[in-house]
Design a protein that fits this description.
The complex is a heterodimer of chains A (about 1200) and B (about 325). With about 1200 residues, chain A is α/β, with parallel strands linked by helices. In chain A, about 40% of the residues lie in helices and about 15% in strands. Chain A is built from 41 helices and 36 strands. By secondary structure, chain B is of the alpha/beta class. Chain B has one domain: TIM Barrel (Alpha-Beta Barrel), CATH 3.20.20.70. In chain B, strand 3 (about 15-20), helix 1 (about 30-35) and strand 4 form a beta-alpha-beta unit. In chain B, helix 4 runs parallel beside helix 5, helix 7 (about 225-235) runs parallel beside helix 8 (about 250-260) and helix 8 (about 250-260) packs across helix 10 (about 280-295). Chain B is globular and about 80 Å long. Mean pLDDT of chain B is about 90; it is low at about 320-325. The chains are: A alpha/beta (about 1200), B alpha/beta (about 325). Chains A and B meet through helix 2, helix 15, helix 20 and helix 39 of A and helix 2 of B.
């Protein structure tokens, strides 16, 4: 029997692929991997169980995937898809149809939280529970082994029963857990199926030779009966599942049942649950039974049709009380679904009922540990036991939570090793640990498990790896609580986080240290020294960065740390481990080239010699302490709540600490001082030309520009730099360009765009990257002073220049986006131009994650407390969501004006006239109107008229706010296109900003319809064969939509101008912003050069379409020159294209020729378009009102 | 009928006209055109170890950037079956050229590490190359570098490759040695079967507008041939080795001059890039005519006849005879 160490997604995808012919896919976390694997296998020609290569197709949404799935099934093919969360919700309508037509099908779901008060990418059952009424059978897997086995059972049982199956397992905990599993081989797999079932399915397919009609509309006379006609098929499902499970057991020896009981044969207290939590409960039950307690558990595998009889049969007759755990929340229900099902199953049998209570656990991957499981079993002793409880949180509001027994631990197997690793995403720690798990899993008899925790930042992300190795099967479905080994791959972490929290007494502590074993002690903070002394830790150091550098690996310390780990454990003899690591290097990197393998092997050879044990003193000698997560002057909420999350203590925050409705304050990112840059830009005012380019391109708002009167220097520190500001308007002012040293990610984009170079030293610019260590302290002082500078009057300089826009305060700062992100400069600029008077609707994607993922968020406010009001609804509905905001704003304004007129006598005619006639086309007008509204509100407070309060509530509607609808290309081109199109056609005054990275960036680089021809992306591994959709052109067809295409690195002035025009256009506007991305395979410090090339080659022409014809009566203005660079030159510099040129030069050449022809033809068409004159509507107002006129 | 045959690196060639490494020898179609026009052999463009390394590291960096850093994306690129970063494409060119051409195919290698030189030399030989040309390109910019050690590096490198492969070995070097004659003999002693004189270092240029350094390819001119002529003449009869004259061979006269001083072959790149592969046929005709008109029988007879041993005034070659050059130089500005 073959074994492999893989994660749950791969385990399930293997089966789905082997037993399918058509797969319709769409990326969504945490299920994306399944689709990616299927697509890659199909592209590589891997056959399914019958020898044919399945067709895998990416759709525009999960709704589309379900529709295509339905079609494929109706033709009698074996079809499947993968999804999660919102994706599953989008599939529901088709799922009802597919089930109603009794069609064999399987959907594999990595179960994930549905967005409610917040989005969560993590795991619970809220998505699958929303599908429980669709008529699909539902089968739950609890770990990667089951994800494989029950995937196979699902495919077999759906064919024999004709009822479609939803096979699910817990997102992340199972989908992303690496585990050693026994593989199902082809023959074993086919033995689960009956050929006749497949033939029958084929036979039922739609054929014109023997046509049938399906999908009729039925009337009250027969619909009901027809619906009941399927009953026998549902009644047969449990038998079909049992039969498939039986065959699986015959083939493999692994036995499953519809429900499985585990525990004391005469248990009195029993927990019922499904999913990965079963592992933690099983360990708990075993521990308690060993201690003499009569406890047990039931794991539900078949959830729909609910196996009532099997459940009753599984429970020992001795059971007195049952706790049913649901990993979902159904507010307002008498209980969560599994609980109600269990109650119904027991009640319908009649006779004596044990006490049954329900509780919630594990929402959004909340940890569920044995101590929590024990608290549930303990609660069943209480008479009556608590109902509708929660476990795993502290509920100090409704007091439903059970107190966990934190001292409780289950016995670990002899010889088990638990290891925790703290690293950075960029240092390769996770990759190395995945390799280590695979090495031990594949090369020893030990069981191995790996689970990886990431923070929510994209730049400087911290990773924590939890690895277990044991001679016994690993059931622990939770993070390590007491580690035998802790490895800290970044020395800097010791000053900021408690990395030794999980170290158990006597544990080994491995730290990557620039300090030698003799010196390292004095560099540890008090808390670390205390933990080492108190717990008696065995400390080892290795200077992994030095070794990696010497081996030519730069900052990638993964293999060095991996060798050190093996050397400090006895999982494998060291020489075998070294050989195994080298083998893993060959497997992981061999395809990339011999050089990589050699360098890593070199690092391996150097690593052993670099490992040194530290003589630990017997007492603490340090005097410095860990840095607090936020400074003392942070606002109350940040200190009380945000700081706890930053300190890895978010789990301990009680219910009362959190907003009830998902509403959070702005501007929290500024309090999280991450200091992740190795180098930061330092300004040389001597040669600065005041252009503002460094500031406009800074993706993190870490380069600030301000202009001020010389008197502002009176209190400045000596190190603070400034220069006379070159300006007609403010000739007596000074200019400072200042770096925010703790917020800069060191991406270097600012330096690359700086046009000012020294006359004496070419290469020395007005802004230069310098070692952060040498400059951070001084720049902290300078930045502190910079923030105290007076804010320049917004009207002091015109906004339509780069310089003029960059002296404006950004209200989007220090996001967690990737270093060098190509999207964020646009958002920052947007807030500089209009931030204090905009409402932002943000589609789900990268921008909603770096824009709205806790703990800290970048959208912020000005000194008056005004700023962008931001909300994320969903992925697919963002345009509609933004339109709703617009409609509400408009209605509030209309209502306010109506009431204002009615109450004119009370309010005062002058104020009313001023409010109604206000010119709010510029900032100053908006500010004046705000003052008037404040005055109005004050006057209304004194009023006794009943309408006054109503007017006060809508008075803010008198201030002109603009709505910006922001999202990526996945939203605008694909999943949200229908809505976007409708909103653009509505004529309403909304502004749409598409951050076009030409790929689904957030989920890891899948192709969208914005992906250019000839580029490689996931789901387009052979290079995308179809051209990019021209979204701008489609919008222009309406003739009423302002459309602009911009690229800040190619023409920053045009970018500023386009955003200003788009905002000013009283109807809908669409701005397409070229956004470089790490998924382009480029050096992100060169982002702006790539934008220039994109424009120069004609890949991304710059233009503005002004429906009113602008100044010359010609609506379409080409703002970039005729392409002067062959497309080949542009594509050869980007990995996404260059990969194809290497892997398949012939196809690359064909696609490139086609892509060049796309460029040429588009340019010719645009040139013609630029010549078209158009009768301009009388005014923008007319254009938007009279949508029927051209 | 004039006999144009010659031998180079022990390989019998139909004429002394060899297409040296250039973009024209990098693709099968143009290789075929070169053969059809009469190229006696082709030298493929260099396989640059540095380039292979750079491509590999760049790919690795691209695939690792952002990978395993965020829960939503374990990677940002699809895993491909083959990235072809290594020398695979080059080796395929060697194999294809060998399969499609009748004339000898000489592979060229520019290594950077001792391991790289030998590893790639072996791979090129296994791919079927008739001979290897080691393209050694080193700028000794380090002020602490000892000249003898620099020279030893060259010699050791040739020796190591010689040990690794059995195919004939040519060494292409630049002229910047204090005592090139000695250097040449040391290279031959280390195992070189031929010397290709000289490697033409592409000198970087400065763009005064942007004040940046710009690599700029300038095709060679016939004037550059004279350095080559001098050294081939000097080595003629003193170092027994195949000699290829490269850099500055544009016209029939250039070919003749190179043969007269002792070259076994002449290598062309700039002339072919400028005039196309058909230039070879014209040169071959011209060479045959020149030989006939000057009453030689064959290239073999012509080879080295004006070499340093045979010329009337050896000092013209041997000394840096700029004195004479200066004194006989005429210019409209000299009165």
């Amino acid at each position: 029997m073959g074994r492999a160490t893989i994660d749950g997604n791969e385990a399930a995808a293997n089966i789905a692929y082997a037993l399918s012919e058509v797969m319709t896919i769409y990326p969504i976390t945490p299920a994306s991997t399944m689709g990616e694997l299927a697509d890659a296998w199909s592209a590589a020609g891997r056959p399914n169980a019958w020898g044919s290569v399945p067709r895998v197709i990416e759709m525009q949404s999960e709704g589309g995937a379900a529709g295509a799935l339905h079609g494929a099934l109706q033709k009698g093919t074996l079809a499947t898809t993968f999804t999660a969360s919102q994706g599953l919700l989008l599939m529901l309508p088709n799922m009802y149809k597919i089930a109603g037509e009794l069609t064999p099908a399987v959907i594999h779901v990595a179960a994930r939280t549905i967005a409610t008060h917040a989005l969560s990418i993590f795991g619970d059952h809220s998505d699958v529970m929303a599908a429980r009424s669709t008529g699909w059978a539902m089968l739950a897997s609890a770990n990667p082994q089951e994800a494989q086995d029950l995937a196979a059972v699902s495919h077999a049982a759906t064919l024999s029963s004709r009822v479609p199956f939803l096979h699910f397992f817990d997102g992340f905990r199972t989908s992303h857990e690496m585990a050693k599993i026994s593989l199902l081989q082809g023959g074993e797999l086919l033995a689960l199926l009956e050929d006749d079932d497949i033939l029958a399915h084929r036979e039922r397919g739609l054929h014109s030779g023997a046509p049938a009609l399906r999908g009729t509309a039925q009337n009250p006379d027969v619909f009901f009966q027809a619906r009941e006609a399927a009953n026998p098929y549902y009644a047969a499902v449990p038998y079909a599942v049992r039969e498939a499970m039986q065959r699986l057991a015959e083939q493999t020896g692994r036995r499953y049942d519809l429900v499985d009981y585990h525990g004391h044969p005469e248990a009195e207290r029993v927990v019922v649950l499904m999913g990965s939590g079963a592992g933690a409960v099983a360990e708990t039950v075993d521990e308690l039974v060993r201690g003499g307690e009569r406890v047990g558990m039931v794991t539900v595998r078949l959830y729909r049709p609910f196996p009532s009889e099997a459940l009753r049969a599984a429970l020992p007759a001795t059971v007195q009380s049952i706790a049913v755990l649901d990993r979902t929340k159904e507010p307002g229900a008498p209980g969560e679904p599994l609980y109600l099902d269990v109650v119904a199953a027991l009640a319908e049998a009649g006779g004596r009922m044990p006490t049954v209570v329900g509780g919630r656990y594990g929402l959004s991957s909340k940890e569920f540990t044995p101590s929590m499981a024990k608290s549930v079993l303990d609660a069943l002793r209480v008479d009556p036991p608590p109902r509708s409880f929660t476990v795993g949180i502290i509920d100090d509001v409704t007091h439903l939570s059970l107190p966990p027994d934190t001292s409780f631990r289950v016995r670990r197997a002899d010889g088990e090793l638990q290891a925790v690793f703290y690293g950075l995403g960029s240092d390769g720690t996770v990759g190395a640990n995945k390799n280590s798990v695979a090495i031990v899993g594949d090369q020893t008899d030990l069981y191995a498990q790996g689970y990886f925790v990431y923070d929510s930042k994209k730049a400087g992300a911290v990773t924590v790896s939890h690895l277990r190795f044991s001679p016994e099967p690993l059931r622990s479905s939770y993070l390590i609580e007491e580690a035998d080994l802790v490895a800290c791959h970044q020395f800097g972490f010791l000053a900021r986080r408690d990395v030794l929290k999980l170290a158990k007494p006597g544990a080994t502590f491995l730290v990557n240290s620039p300090h030698a074993a003799e010196d390292v002690w004095e560099h540890l903070p008090v808390e670390a020294q205390e933990a080492i002394v108190d717990k008696g830790l065995d400390v080892h150091v290795i200077d992994a960065y030095r070794i990696a550098r010497e081996a030519g690996l730069g900052m990638r310390i993964n293999t060095v740390m991996q060798v050190a780990f093996f050397a400090l454990t006895d999982l494998l003899p060291t020489d075998e481990a070294v050989g195994a690591v080298k083998g893993a290097i060959e497997r992981s990197y061999g395809k990339r080239g011999a050089e990589i393998v050699e360098r890593n092997n070199d690092a391996v050879d150097r690593a052993l010699a670099g490992l040194a044990r530290v003589e630990v003193p017997d007492r603490v000698t340090a005097t410095t302490y860990r840095e607090p997560p936020v400074p003392a002057e942070a606002p109350d909420f940040v200190r009380r709540v945000t700081a706890r999350m930053l300190a890895d203590e978010g789990d301990l925050l009680p219910v009362s600490a959190l907003p009830v409705d998902g509403t959070f304050p702005l501007g929290t990112a500024r309090w999280e001082k991450r200091a992740i840059a190795q180098e930061i830009p330092i300004w040389d005012p001597e040669i600065c030309i005041d252009c503002g380019k460094c500031a406009i391109v800074c993706p993190h708002a870490a380069i600030r520009m301000n202009v001020f009167e010389p008197s502002a220097l009176d209190s400045a520190p000596d190190s603070f730099q400034s220069k006379p500001f070159k300006s007609r308007e403010l000739s007596d002012h000074l200019l400072t360009i200042q770096v925010a040293p703790d917020d800069c990610t060191g991406c270097g984009v600012c330096v690359e765009v700086c046009p000012a170079t020294s006359k004496e030293h070419v290469g020395h610019k007005s802004i230069n990257m310098r070692p952060a260590e040498e400059h951070r302290e001084v720049e902290r002082i300078n930045f502190d002073h910079f923030q105290r500078l007076p804010v320049l009057d917004r009207d002091a300089l015109p906004h339509n220049t780069v310089k003029g826009s960059q002296v404006l305060l950004p209200l989007f700062e220090f996001s967690g986006a990737c270093a060098g992100c190509g999207e964020t400069p646009y958002l920052k600029l947007l807030t500089q131009l209009f931030g204090s008077r905009i409402v932002v609707a943000n589609a789900t994607g990268c921008s909603s994650i770096y824009g709205g993922n806790l703990p800290t968020t970048p959208w912020s406010t000005n000194a008056e407390g005004q700023g962008p009001a931001w909300a994320n609804s969903l992925f697919e509905d963002n345009a509609e969501f933004g339109l709703g905001l617009r409609l509400a704003l408009d209605h509030q304004g209309t209502e306010a004006r109506r009431l204002l007129t009615e109450l004119a006598g009370e309010v005062g005619d002058d104020l009313v006239r001023a409010l109604l006639d206000a010119d709010q086309s510029e900032d100053a007008g908006v500010a004046s109107q705000r003052r008037r509204v404040a005055e109005l509100t004050a006057r209304l407070e004194r009023s006794t008229d009943t309408r006054a309060a109503r007017l006060a509530s809508v008075a803010r509607g008198l201030v002109r706010e603009s709505v910006w609808i922001v999202g990526g290309d996945g939203w605008a081109y694909d999943i949200g296109y229908g809505g976007l199109d409708h909103v653009l056609a509505s004529g309403e005054d909304v502004n749409v900003l598409v951050l076009d990275t030409e790929v689904y960036s957030n989920t890891g680089g899948q192709a969208s319809k914005a992906t250019p021809r000839a580029a490689i992306a996931k789901f387009a591994t052979a290079g995308k064969s179809m051209p990019k959709k021209d979204l701008g052109l489609l919008a222009m067809q309406y003739g009423t939509v302002y459309v602009g295409q911009i690229a800040v690195g190619a023409n920053d002035t045009q970018t500023v101008r386009t955003l200003l025009e788009a905002a000013a256009w009283p109807g809908p506007s669409l701005v397409l912003a070229y956004s470089t991305c790490i998924a382009h395979g480029i050096d992100m410090s060169q982002s702006m050069a790539h934008m220039r090339d994109a424009v120069k080659s004609g890949h991304w022409p710059l233009y503005r379409y002004q429906p009113d014809g602008g100044s010359d009566g010609k609506p379409f203005h080409l703002d970039s020159r005729k392409p002067s660079m062959p497309l080949a030159d542009f594509v050869s510099r980007e990995g996404r294209f260059a990969m194809l040129q290497r892997s398949d030069p012939e196809r690359a050449e064909q696609l490139l020729q086609a892509a060049q022809s796309d460029v040429d033809q588009r340019w010719r068409y645009y040139e013609q378009l630029a010549d078209v004159s158009r009768d301009a509507p009388a005014s923008g107002e007319d254009t938007t009102q009279g949508m029927t006129t051209p | 009928m004039t006999d144009l045959r010659t031998r180079y690196l022990g390989l019998p060639l139909r004429s002394p006209l060899v297409a040296s490494a250039s973009p024209l020898t990098g693709a099968l179609d143009s290789l075929r055109a070169l053969e059809a026009s009469g190229a006696a052999a082709v030298v493929l463009p260099s396989l640059f170890e540095e380039q292979v390394t750079h491509d590999t590291l760049e790919l690795h960096d691209m695939l690792e950037t952002g990978a395993a850093s965020h829960p939503e994306a374990t990677s940002y690129f699809a895993e491909l079956q083959d990235y072809n970063t290594g020398p695979t494409r080059y080796l395929r060119l060697v194999e294809d050229a060998k399969e499609k051409l009748e004339i000898p195919v000489i592979a060229s290698l520019n290594g950077t590490t001792p391991g790289g030189w030998t590893r790639y030399a072996r791979l090129l030989a296994e791919a079927g190359a008739d001979a290897l040309e080691l393209n050694i390109y080193r700028i000794a910019a380090d002020v602490d570098a000892d000249p003898r050690e620099v020279e030893d590096d060259y010699v050791n490198l040739v020796a190591r490759v010689r040990e690794a492969v059995d195919v004939p070995l040519a060494v292409k070097v630049g002229p910047f040695f204090t005592a090139f004659a000695n250097m040449a003999r040391r290279l031959v002693d280390a195992g070189a079967d031929g010397l290709v004189l000289f490697n033409r270092f592409y000198q970087p240029d400065i763009d005064p507008e942007t004040r940046t350094v710009e690599p700029r390819l300038v095709l060679s001119t016939p004037e550059e041939l004279r350095l080559v002529l001098r050294w081939i003449a000097i080595l003629q009869g003193r170092v027994e080795v195949s000699k290829a004259a490269t850099t500055g061979i544009h016209a029939v006269e250039d070919v003749v001059k190179a043969l007269l001083v002792g070259a076994d072959v002449t290598m062309l790149a700039s002339a072919l890039l400028r005039h196309g592969p058909a230039r070879l046929a014209a040169l071959e005709d011209g060479l045959a005519t020149w030989i006939a008109e000057h009453e030689y029988d064959s290239v073999e007879q012509l080879k080295g006849s004006t070499g340093q041993q045979l010329v009337a005034d050896p000092s013209a070659f041997e000394r840096a005879n700029y004195m004479r050059t200066l004194t006989t130089y005429s210019s409209p500005f000299l009165v």
